[in-house]
Design brief:
6 helices; Hypothetical Protein Ychn, Chain: A
Length: about 160
Protein backbone atom coordinates (compact mmCIF):
# COMPACT_ATOMS: atom_id res chain seq x y z
CA UNK A 1 0.00 0.00 0.00
CA UNK A 2 1.36 3.41 -0.90
CA UNK A 3 1.44 6.41 1.44
CA UNK A 4 -1.10 8.51 -0.47
CA UNK A 5 -4.21 6.91 1.06
CA UNK A 6 -5.37 5.70 -2.36
CA UNK A 7 -5.31 9.11 -4.05
CA UNK A 8 -5.61 8.94 -7.82
CA UNK A 9 -2.59 10.51 -9.49
CA UNK A 10 -3.01 9.31 -13.05
CA UNK A 11 -5.80 7.85 -15.18
CA UNK A 12 -4.83 5.51 -18.02
CA UNK A 13 -7.76 5.18 -20.41
CA UNK A 14 -7.79 2.50 -23.10
CA UNK A 15 -10.27 3.14 -25.92
CA UNK A 16 -10.99 0.07 -28.05
CA UNK A 17 -14.30 1.08 -29.67
CA UNK A 18 -15.04 4.20 -31.69
CA UNK A 19 -18.79 4.38 -31.27
CA UNK A 20 -19.86 7.90 -30.45
CA UNK A 21 -20.99 6.98 -26.93
CA UNK A 22 -17.72 5.22 -26.07
CA UNK A 23 -15.52 7.97 -27.48
CA UNK A 24 -17.37 10.69 -25.59
CA UNK A 25 -17.27 8.63 -22.38
CA UNK A 26 -13.48 8.27 -22.68
CA UNK A 27 -12.98 11.93 -23.60
CA UNK A 28 -15.18 13.18 -20.74
CA UNK A 29 -13.32 10.97 -18.25
CA UNK A 30 -9.91 12.16 -19.47
CA UNK A 31 -11.03 15.79 -19.45
CA UNK A 32 -12.55 15.39 -15.99
CA UNK A 33 -9.29 13.97 -14.67
CA UNK A 34 -7.36 16.97 -15.98
CA UNK A 35 -9.90 19.37 -14.49
CA UNK A 36 -9.29 17.70 -11.12
CA UNK A 37 -5.51 18.02 -11.52
CA UNK A 38 -5.05 14.33 -12.25
CA UNK A 39 -2.72 13.24 -15.05
CA UNK A 40 -4.48 11.48 -17.93
CA UNK A 41 -3.19 9.32 -20.76
CA UNK A 42 -5.18 7.63 -23.51
CA UNK A 43 -4.25 4.52 -25.48
CA UNK A 44 -6.21 4.07 -28.72
CA UNK A 45 -6.33 0.45 -29.85
CA UNK A 46 -8.25 -1.61 -32.40
CA UNK A 47 -11.41 0.22 -33.52
CA UNK A 48 -10.72 2.94 -30.96
CA UNK A 49 -8.13 4.22 -33.43
CA UNK A 50 -10.98 5.57 -35.57
CA UNK A 51 -11.54 8.23 -32.88
CA UNK A 52 -8.15 9.73 -33.82
CA UNK A 53 -8.00 8.81 -37.52
CA UNK A 54 -8.20 12.10 -39.47
CA UNK A 55 -10.54 10.72 -42.14
CA UNK A 56 -12.85 8.84 -39.74
CA UNK A 57 -13.13 10.85 -36.52
CA UNK A 58 -15.80 13.24 -37.82
CA UNK A 59 -18.14 10.44 -38.91
CA UNK A 60 -18.39 8.29 -35.77
CA UNK A 61 -21.82 6.84 -35.07
CA UNK A 62 -23.95 5.56 -32.21
CA UNK A 63 -24.15 1.77 -31.96
CA UNK A 64 -27.80 0.70 -32.34
CA UNK A 65 -27.31 -3.08 -32.67
CA UNK A 66 -26.55 -5.00 -29.50
CA UNK A 67 -26.75 -1.86 -27.36
CA UNK A 68 -29.26 -2.53 -24.53
CA UNK A 69 -29.22 1.15 -23.51
CA UNK A 70 -30.90 2.03 -26.81
CA UNK A 71 -34.07 0.22 -25.67
CA UNK A 72 -34.87 -0.90 -29.19
CA UNK A 73 -34.94 -4.49 -30.43
CA UNK A 74 -31.79 -5.63 -32.23
CA UNK A 75 -33.78 -6.26 -35.40
CA UNK A 76 -35.05 -2.67 -35.42
CA UNK A 77 -31.59 -1.31 -34.55
CA UNK A 78 -30.23 -3.06 -37.63
CA UNK A 79 -32.67 -1.46 -40.06
CA UNK A 80 -31.15 0.85 -42.68
CA UNK A 81 -30.89 4.39 -41.41
CA UNK A 82 -31.36 3.61 -37.71
CA UNK A 83 -27.70 4.25 -36.84
CA UNK A 84 -27.74 7.55 -38.70
CA UNK A 85 -30.99 8.58 -37.01
CA UNK A 86 -29.75 7.69 -33.51
CA UNK A 87 -26.47 9.51 -34.21
CA UNK A 88 -28.33 12.60 -35.41
CA UNK A 89 -30.48 12.73 -32.27
CA UNK A 90 -27.53 12.14 -29.94
CA UNK A 91 -25.48 14.88 -31.61
CA UNK A 92 -28.46 17.23 -31.38
CA UNK A 93 -28.76 16.60 -27.63
CA UNK A 94 -25.01 17.05 -27.12
CA UNK A 95 -25.16 20.34 -29.01
CA UNK A 96 -27.80 21.58 -26.54
CA UNK A 97 -25.34 21.13 -23.66
CA UNK A 98 -22.40 22.61 -25.59
CA UNK A 99 -20.53 19.31 -25.88
CA UNK A 100 -17.67 19.88 -28.33
CA UNK A 101 -17.45 17.89 -31.58
CA UNK A 102 -14.76 15.18 -31.70
CA UNK A 103 -12.03 17.27 -33.44
CA UNK A 104 -12.51 20.17 -31.02
CA UNK A 105 -12.62 17.81 -28.03
CA UNK A 106 -9.31 16.27 -29.14
CA UNK A 107 -7.80 19.77 -29.23
CA UNK A 108 -9.13 20.46 -25.72
CA UNK A 109 -7.66 17.21 -24.40
CA UNK A 110 -4.31 17.86 -26.05
CA UNK A 111 -4.17 21.46 -24.75
CA UNK A 112 -5.01 20.29 -21.21
CA UNK A 113 -2.04 17.92 -21.19
CA UNK A 114 -3.70 14.58 -21.91
CA UNK A 115 -1.06 12.32 -23.44
CA UNK A 116 -2.38 10.25 -26.34
CA UNK A 117 -0.84 7.08 -27.72
CA UNK A 118 -1.76 4.81 -30.65
CA UNK A 119 -1.36 1.03 -30.46
CA UNK A 120 1.41 -0.37 -32.68
CA UNK A 121 -0.35 -3.72 -33.20
CA UNK A 122 -3.65 -2.11 -34.27
CA UNK A 123 -1.82 0.40 -36.49
CA UNK A 124 -0.05 -2.45 -38.27
CA UNK A 125 -3.22 -4.54 -38.49
CA UNK A 126 -5.22 -1.72 -40.13
CA UNK A 127 -2.26 -0.47 -42.21
CA UNK A 128 -2.44 3.01 -40.66
CA UNK A 129 0.51 5.40 -40.59
CA UNK A 130 1.13 8.03 -37.93
CA UNK A 131 0.36 10.77 -40.47
CA UNK A 132 -3.18 9.30 -40.76
CA UNK A 133 -3.79 10.24 -37.13
CA UNK A 134 -4.72 13.37 -35.24
CA UNK A 135 -1.61 15.48 -34.68
CA UNK A 136 -1.91 15.25 -30.88
CA UNK A 137 -1.03 11.55 -30.91
CA UNK A 138 2.40 11.64 -29.31
CA UNK A 139 3.66 8.30 -30.50
CA UNK A 140 2.73 4.83 -31.72
CA UNK A 141 3.66 2.44 -28.91
CA UNK A 142 3.33 -1.22 -27.98
CA UNK A 143 1.10 -2.55 -25.21
CA UNK A 144 4.27 -3.18 -23.20
CA UNK A 145 5.26 0.48 -23.58
CA UNK A 146 1.80 1.49 -22.38
CA UNK A 147 2.10 -0.73 -19.31
CA UNK A 148 5.46 0.85 -18.48
CA UNK A 149 3.81 4.28 -18.65
CA UNK A 150 1.19 2.93 -16.23
CA UNK A 151 3.65 2.07 -13.47
CA UNK A 152 3.62 3.80 -10.12
CA UNK A 153 1.39 4.54 -7.15
CA UNK A 154 -2.02 6.13 -7.65
CA UNK A 155 -2.43 4.95 -11.25
CA UNK A 156 -5.88 3.71 -12.31
CA UNK A 157 -6.67 2.04 -15.63
CA UNK A 158 -10.00 2.09 -17.48
CA UNK A 159 -10.90 0.00 -20.52
CA UNK A 160 -13.64 1.40 -22.74
Amino acid sequence: MDNDNGAIRKMMIILSKATLENVYAAFVLANGARMEGIEAEMFFTFFGLEAVHKKKLASLRVATVGNPAMHIPTMVGGLPGMEALATHFMKKEMEKIDMPEIPEFLDILSASGVKMWACRLAMDMFHYKQEDLYEGIEEVITVGDFYKKSEGPGVKMLFI
